[in-house]
Design a protein that fits this description.
Layout: E1 2-8, H1 13-25, E2 29-35, E3 42-47, H2 53-61, E4 67-69
Antiparallel strand pairs: 1-3, 1-4, 2-3
Amino acid sequence: MSLMIFKTNIKSRRKARMFGAIFRRHPFIYTWSIDFEDVDKVLRIESASDLQSDAVVQLVTNHGFICEDLPD
């Protein structure tokens, strides 16, 4: 299992809800959360090690949001 951390511009729970359905259907994503209090609106994903960060970035950006890897 791995922990992936991203900077996003997802600013509300309402906007994040659509990702709930998307992430629940993804076979490699186990849990996820967005920290709305953080200035970077940090998205944390616990996933199978098979999931690449580029795939998450692409998935989020395909829905009109910004998503970037956050360095450790």
